[in-house]
Model the fold of this input.
Amino acid sequence: MKNGKWKMKNGVLASVLMLAFCQCVASQPANSPTPNSPTPNSPTPNSFQVVALVDSLDFAKNYDIETVTGTVQTLEHVLLTHSNDIWWRDKGGGRMRYPSECEMWPVSEAPFDKKRLPSEDIYGYLRLESPRGNEFPVVREECRRRGLGFGIHTTIEENHWYSPLSSNWTLAHPEYWSCMRNGEPWMGTCSIMYPEVVEHKLKMVDERLAMKPQKIMLDFWRNGAWTYAREYTAPALAEWKRLYGDEPVPEPFDPRWQKMVGARFDDYLRKFSAKCRAAGVEFIGGFVGIDDKDDASLRNRYCGLEWRHLAKEGVFDAVCVMSVTYDPKDPFGSTERIYRNVMSNRGKAEIYFPLASYNFEKCGIGEYAKLAKISEAEATTRLLRLAKSVGARGVVLECVDYGNYRPAVCAAIKSFLEEK
Done:
């Protein structure tokens, strides 16, 4: 390869042959609720939605998540939050949580080892992309039987800031790797500027749709360090020359470069949306750091994307606001202003607002409680009522891990859902 060394921030993943998949031997657990058992979390039509984002890997030290029993146990723990819509993560970085034909390249295998986790239970290696580890049929059926919504939470990242979590397809196609402005290739992702990369991504959309979700949420927060600053590939340079002639190639923060790369990403999202619409599945975009000003900061963060025009155009059926940038001197007042600004710029898109346990982006329940000098339960109730009062469809719990939503917070969610 001409330009520099192939490298990634945390090192290059060595290639080895893909091992044969294990066959699924798990059976329906005896302790699974019967079809006639009550479903207290079941939403009523047009009810306020409390969405749980779930990455089963976070439960690996608590349950044997490669089995039906462990998957059901994970779901039942999640339901302690009184969520009524479940969006299950389909990958971490580029490592799939189901047997993906698109990602079954004989390049590498980096199984997770539960023995590294702080648990007394040792299950050996996790092979979540094997048939044995495929949780989605179980989760979908359990959600259907319990009257819960079922969606897929996916991400734009092809790595998770760590090379063993890189996509197999990405590792197998260095000819499409992203590139820095200085000409140095970057193996963290394949460039959106190549039609072949878009084609691959759309095939993966088909795989997700085959799981029959009601919604697919594409998370732009988990980006694996991918920005338009890594899009100086041959097709991008050719597009720049077509648009601007012999003008020097700009720095990545040049608005013209952002717009050019963002336009290509917009085209991909339109195709993603069209596939979802044809299947009767909602397409949702997930963003963080939203404020009540212009979206310059978001464009800098999300490959030139600007969520408002995509919502107004109808590309997104809903927008999931995963965090907001509020004024710490007036946390609830400034949050309300941001929420109302979002609602006035959404077009016809439905909106979800955050109800986070973790303090990512300084937007957790605990941070609101600390700033307002109130309990976490009271902060929870205020955030729920605020989201409902401005007309949001619901809130999103980002994300539900083992025990991270405290009992008092869960009780506040339950009380809110029972309010008339």
User: Anything to note?
Assistant: The CA atoms of residues 56 and 65 lie 7 Å apart. The first strand starts at residue 49 and ends at 54. DSSP finds twelve helices and 14 strands in the chain.
